[in-house]
Design goal:
Order of helices and strands: HEHHHHHHEEHE
Strand order of the largest sheet: 2-3-1-4
Distance between the termini: 27 Å
Number of helices: 8
Strand content: 15-25%
Structural class: alpha+beta
Shape: globular
Length: about 190
């Protein structure tokens, strides 16, 4: 882990930064990433949904609660967010899909795995990346980019608890909140 602060201390910091609508400033002596989030003329709606979803998780963390039931997730998370995930599979469907995947030639497996990295995320899979034992990033701040682009782009900074993390859950998060595209940029490009 990158810091000596506990997970729950980062939860508190994230909550404070969400509440004050913190600017995505540079995170000194720390791991962090900065993203440009492209929207389709609905930047405020996307930002609002992003924060709404993060508050759901933040509230669960504060209460030291976790949910394992997919129907409960659907009940507490905004429908606008959950509707964009692939449907959950039954055990039989998972086994059938696994058998099909194992029957593919090596090159086909690579192609299918690459496609699945962004297209086949289920809510249960994504929620598991937000579990306190698995989550490695926190909201640090955001701002809308410029007057000319104000309806289409905003910048987001995230705090990483580790220098190794998967970009896919972050990309899926923003996409399911309505983002059109997500690009990683150097924090130095902003200043």
């Amino acid at each position: 882990m990158a810091d000596n602060l506990s997970f729950y201390e980062w939860v508190r910091i994230e909550r404070e930064r969400l509440l004050i609508n913190a600017f995505p400033d540079f995170i000194e002596n720390s791991y962090g990433e900065t993203y440009v989030i492209e929207c389709d003329g609905n930047v405020e709606e996307v930002r609002k949904l992003v924060k709404e979803v993060l508050f759901v998780f933040n509230n669960l963390y504060i209460k030291h609660k976790w949910i394992d039931d997919i129907e409960q997730w659907k009940a507490i998370l905004p429908h606008q967010f959950t509707k964009n995930f692939a449907r959950e599979l039954t055990i039989e469907e998972v086994e059938k899909e696994r058998d099909w995947f194992y029957s593919l030639a090596y090159k086909q497996k690579l192609e299918e795995a690459k496609k699945a990295a962004y297209e086949s995320w289920r809510l249960s899979d994504w929620a598991e990346t937000m579990h306190p034992e698995n989550r490695v990033w926190f909201w640090w701040g955001d701002t809308i980019l410029g007057e000319r682009t104000k309806d289409n782009y905003f910048v987001v900074a995230i705090k990483l608890l580790d220098d190794y993390y998967s970009f896919n859950p972050i990309k899926i998060f923003f996409k399911n909140c309505g983002a059109k595209n997500i690009s990683n940029i150097s924090q130095y490009d902003l200043y």
